[in-house]
């Protein structure tokens, strides 16, 4: 089984790379937003139904734990499936190279000719890349895979997603634990709005997106979720 680690990097180096990667960072912010919105929406629904302070505490705690595990599990499954697909493609390319090396070089040269290189240059590039790492050259050309995922990547992705979700859910959870039930609905609403503004700013800066659009989308989803949940709770009270 082919299993190529990304450049032999240490876990700390992989963590720094993930933090500096805009897509990964944006994914963490999205998970944190999900934690904020889902937990706050659940609490507003219970509050609309007239739930006691004890029940709200239980609901907030359960939502944080269950939501974090669900988010982490879903991310782990998704990344694990992606890694399995990469490994399968690597095995197939390795078998094809073993069966017909020159034919694979020709295919690789055709790829580079399509990119605009002259036939002579394309052939030379294909031969040099194949000499260096034949499987990697084919994977990049045919699948756009620059680097095979490390074996630990799905686990790390799942853990980071779970932590990000729980960190977001901790905002309404903390208010539920510390604030009297008579005032916590207002404070949860205000804290969620402030948190969504902050995460929207971070996400927009990290991904170079329009701050106003990101903020509007986050607030519409967040406020809308809390409002609908609260009205649903009133309807069943």
UniProtKB/TrEMBL annotation:
TM helices/strands, residue ranges: 162-181, 187-207, 214-236
InterPro entries for this protein: Ccc1_fam
Keyword tags: Membrane, Transmembrane, Transmembrane helix
Localization of this protein: Endomembrane system
Keyword Transmembrane helix tagged: yes
Pfam families documented for this protein: VIT1
Keyword check for Ribonucleoprotein: no
Membrane topology: Multi-pass membrane protein
Domain of life: Bacteria
Name of this chain's protein: VIT1/CCC1 transporter family protein
Species of provenance: Microbacterium flavum
Lineage of origin: Bacteria, Bacillati, Actinomycetota, Actinomycetes, Micrococcales
